[in-house]
Amino acid sequence: MEKKGLFEAFLECLPDGVVIVDSDGRITSVNAQTEKMFGYSREELLGKPVEVLVPERFRSGHIEYRANYVSQRSPRPMGIGLEITGQRKDGSDFPVEISLSPLATEEGDFVVSVIGDITRRKRMEEALRESEQR
Fold first, then answer.
1. Per-residue DSSP letters for 76-98?
2. CATH no. for residue 78?
3. Torsion angle in degrees (nearest 10) through CA of 43, 19, 16, 56
4. Disulfide engineering: 96 pairs with which of 57, 72, 86, 113, CB 3.0-4.6 Å?
């Protein structure tokens, strides 16, 4: 199996969503879990700005965060202690954790985002808080 095929197979078997974005913030690759998580087909996402996955109220700020990340490229977890929100195709929001990693290739610089839907965890945390308050 060639390297590109192996890389794509690896992305498809991951339990989290993976979104790869070019230096202009356009989506160049997603895995099946991303499609499932956000409700878009791969074809609908490719070439779109990554902000399509961000709630409207956060989009302008996200563009600024993205520009800052590109200027200080390093692996970075996001969502630790922060409420980060994704937006599905149907407009519904859901809590996510995101890790970012730079990827330099012969075709250019990219950012790999690994996205986990933490809805279940948030529900469990809320149930625990409620039970502790009783």
1. EEE-TTS-EEEE-TTS-EEEEEE
2. 3.30.450.20
3. -90
4. 86
Q: What is the pLDDT of residues 1-28, one digit of tens each?
A: 687 788 889 889 999 999 999 999 999 9
Q: Tell me the pLDDT of the chain averaged across its residues.
A: 88
Tell me the two tokens of residue 34: 């991303």
Structure tokens at 126: 């809320």
Q: Given this model, what pLDDT does residue 96 score?
A: 94
Report residue 16: phi and psi, to 5°. -105, 165
Q: Which domain holds residue 89?
A: 3-133
30 within 8 A of 19, measured Cβ to Cβ: yes
The domain tally of the chain equals 1
Q: Nearest-CA neighbor of 33 among 110, 72, 86?
A: 86
